[in-house]
Design goal:
Layout lengths: L3 E5 L5 H14 L10 H7 L5 E8 L2 E12 L6 E10 L8 H13 L4 E2 L7 H10 L16
Parallel strand pairs: 4-5
Antiparallel strand pairs: 1-2, 2-3, 3-4
Bound molecules: coenzyme A.
The site of coenzyme A (COA) has 18 residues, from strand 4, helix 3 and helix 4.
């Protein structure tokens, strides 16, 4: 019998975190977008507002959820800005994604969790609705000022 455990990743896990992030980017067809390196991640994972939970089957990484703690100007309250949720293809459909989200919810301890999902990611949207999230459509703006 195998065991799935979820734990918080720290700087020592930077190489594992890097390969999981690359795996998600490859799944989304954006492998080139991952420019962070292991040393960058080592520094990021030491920051208190950065959180990364890794799911492991018998010590082998199979998924993750990551977020940043942020403060909203309207309320002054802290919320979790979820960054990624990912389970490797061979492990999907067995509740690992839900366990990761429940672990994030436990860490949030009553704080709101917010994130983005592509309109085209129908399966993930259904998954989020099933766990009780509200999906609101908005446009994402990106601006790379040149001067
Ligand atoms: C979304 C994701 C994290 C869910 O993880 P999971 O471990 O499969 O989730 P669970 O087993 O807890 O729940 C299964 C649900 O995930 C959804 N799902 C998405 N892709 C799936 C797949 N390839 N196989 C099975 N379920 C999938 C299904 O909607 C399913 O919900 P349903 O039972 O209502 O049909 C995972 O499918 C994944 O990593 N997808 C690719 C990355 C992604 O889209 N991340 C979200 C970006 S916002």
């Amino acid at each position: 019998m195998t065991t799935i455990a979820i734990r918080r990743a720290g700087p020592a896990d930077a190489a594992t975190v890097h390969s999981l992030i690359r795996a998600l980017a490859e799944h989304q067809g954006h492998a080139d977008a991952v420019t962070v390196n292991v040393a960058d991640l080592e520094r990021m994972l030491a920051r208190p507002e950065v959180a990364y939970l890794v799911a492991e089957r018998d010590g082998r990484p199979i998924g993750y959820v990551s977020w940043l703690e942020r403060t909203g100007f309207w309320t002054g309250d802290e919320h979790f800005a979820l960054d990624d949720l990912f389970v490797v293809a061979a492990e999907r459909g067995h509740g690992v994604g839900e366990r990761l989200m429940r672990a994030a919810a436990e860490a949030a301890n009553g704080r709101v969790i917010r994130w983005e999902v592509a309109e085209t990611n129908v399966a993930a949207r259904r998954f989020y609705e099933r766990i009780g999230a509200t999906l609101v459509s908005k446009q994402i703006c990106r601006w790379q000022p040149t001067a």
